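FORM 12-B: Structure-to-Sequence Request
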């Protein structure tokens, strides 16, 4: 009995470790979720350093759904070239819209800047400026919902799960029957994502908030341009090759 318990623990940590490292290397690649995390972390109030946690919570909810989806045997759907191209076009269009919205709001000066140099302001000043800027907040205000929507907008996230993610699940016997393996895989994967994005949100919150308005707007425009270019790339690239 002790040998079986030791075997379970060993298997759990092996799967957890590999899943953590695979997720971490994927999370560290630049993408729309990274851009969204930086923007939300800087624009948030006192607890902006926790934006990575909330965004990855939404991301994890979506990944839990796709893991269940794959375990029920629907991986072939995500490997269909028509599905991939449809996701690519829809996701690319959504990212282009996000990017254009950022640039448009910068141009119209509709971006709240009350948080810049906020460490030199009193709580009363921050609350007053935050309240006056609330009406300009639109769209992806909720970071959990944003984590879901931005993740869904990336067609390569879907392709990753249909190929690398699913292959990992087969290799390590991830199934409902082997629920300890499933638990280790899911926790390890989300821990890898969380480790990176929480680090990014902390760094963004405590670093970029010292910027002046012009530099901050410049960074936002760069983020918007990146999302537009990334959206164009994701919308076009599925038509350039077969899966």
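FORM 12-B RESPONSE
SEQUENCE OUT:
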């Amino acid at each position: 009995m002790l040998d079986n318990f030791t075997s379970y623990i060993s298997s759990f940590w092996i799967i957890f470790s590999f899943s953590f490292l695979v997720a971490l290397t994927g999370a560290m690649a630049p993408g729309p979720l990274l851009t969204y995390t930086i923007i939300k972390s800087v624009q948030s109030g006192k607890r902006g350093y926790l934006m990575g946690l909330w965004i990855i919570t939404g991301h994890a909810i979506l990944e839990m759904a796709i893991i269940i989806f794959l375990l029920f045997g629907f991986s072939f759907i995500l490997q269909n070239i028509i599905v991939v191209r449809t996701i690519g076009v829809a996701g690319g269009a959504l990212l282009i819209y996000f990017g254009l919205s950022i640039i448009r709001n910068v141009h119209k000066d509709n971006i709240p800047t009350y948080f810049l140099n906020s460490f030199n302001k009193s709580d009363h000043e921050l609350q007053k400026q935050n309240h006056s800027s609330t009406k300009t907040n639109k769209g992806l205000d909720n970071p959990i919902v944003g984590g879901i929507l931005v993740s869904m907008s990336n067609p390569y996230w879907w392709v990753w799960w249909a190929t690398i993610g699913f292959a990992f699940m087969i290799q390590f016997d991830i199934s409902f029957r082997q629920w300890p393996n499933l638990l280790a895989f899911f926790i390890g994967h989300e821990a890898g994502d969380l480790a990176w994005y929480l680090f990014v949100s902390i760094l963004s919150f405590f670093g970029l908030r010292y910027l002046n308005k012009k530099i901050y707007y410049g960074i936002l425009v760069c983020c918007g341009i990146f999302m537009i270019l990334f959206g164009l790339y994701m919308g076009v690239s599925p038509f350039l090759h077969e899966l």
